[in-house]
Amino acid sequence: MLLAAATTEVVLGALVVIPMLIYRIKAKRWQRINLEYPKESHETELMILLPIWNEGLVIEKKLADLNRDYSFKTSLLVIDSASSDDSVEKVKQWLSDNKSAFFASQVIEMPERLGKTAAVKQAIESLDRQSYTGLVLMTDADAIIDEGTIERLHGWFVDPSIGAVGSRAIRQTKLHGEKHYRSLYHFLRVAESKRDSTPFLEGSCMMWRHGTFRSVDLNVDSNADDAQIATLIRIAGLRSILDANAAFTDFAPTTIEGQRRQKVRRAQGLQNLLHRFPKQHILPNDGEFSRIFRAQRHFHLVVPIMLFQIAIVTIIRWIYVSITGMPTGFEAGLHASLAFVELLILVSWLTYRTGIRLPLVTTIGALVTSFEYLFIASYRNSSGQSSHMWNQHRDIRKQMHEF
């Protein structure tokens, strides 16, 4: 019994660790690829898409952040998801007081709140009806875009192969591990972009060619609209990349519970994307994107379940040992080795959660915690709990307001 449980644990562990190590090695190799920035300039029109919902505390600061000297024609489209505060009034007043900020501006007021993806879909459909043919910059109300980032994103579209470009997040937080987790995420997204395309971009500041995907293909009952757009654009034949030299500042929740809620919500959206798209779309045969997508599918959908199975087998093994007594010989060595690994993982998870920093252990803790969030997200998805509409993180808005 002990040998069977231990063997199962080792096999499942190998199926988790080996693909991750292989992908990490690939990503490090891809990082050496030079993603050359275009030298030419262009004056393609830009539409800034700003979805809002109850952003009265920060909306004026956000609009002021977007009020810049652009070298190309820039307009603003605000779509409000039936805010119950004074967001719309503040937007209209600000636009009235700053008539020269944008070439043109428009405010769409939705009669009811349907979630961000539904709002983005409606905004894109509005641009379709206007026969708009330029670029779209989508940004969130709780993000502050770095100086020069919008111009840099815009410059990529001289290259006709580029369909979407995202920027990196500079996260303001006092929570332990958030920045470490973000650096792991950033490393992979940049590597995937250099090799081909990344399926995941940050909707807080991303730009794309309007008309490169159909708005009807957006799943409004799911979140992660940014990743949906990035993936649809690559499926359409253009590249979707993250520019490491373009950045924005955003703010993390101030509590562990808020952080967990935010990451589980994001994980649900990504899992829905990875589960649904291969069934509804043909992944491109050219380039590396199909393999990148399948790898992310394995990490986000399969690995969390495998880790849960490992946990169950581990518990069974320890129950068996507690009943029959400590093993001897080869089984004793195998049990001790597995116990050491299990202790390391447990300590890594606990220290990461409690904010204790230890070399190497922090990295392991960040990975284990991320898979914990993915498992919770998987459970929520399987039980029919949707995250496409969520309670706002008010502490994030307060941080931005005071920033």
Structure explained in plain terms:
This protein is α/β, with parallel strands linked by helices and 403 residues long. It has a domain at 44-253: Spore Coat Polysaccharide Biosynthesis Protein SpsA, Chain A, CATH 3.90.550. The chain is 54% helix and 14% strand. It has twelve helices and eight strands. The chain has helices at residues 2-30, 59-66, 87-97, 116-129, 149-155, 178-195, 225-235, 256-280, 289-324, 329-354, 361-382, 394-402; strands spanning 46-52, 74-80, 105-109, 135-139, 144-145, 162-172, 205-209, 239-251. An eight-stranded mixed beta sheet has the order 3-2-1-4-7-6-8-5, sandwiched between helices. The longest helix is centred in the C-terminal third of the chain and has 36 residues, at 289-324. The protein is elongated and about 80 Å long. The termini are far apart.
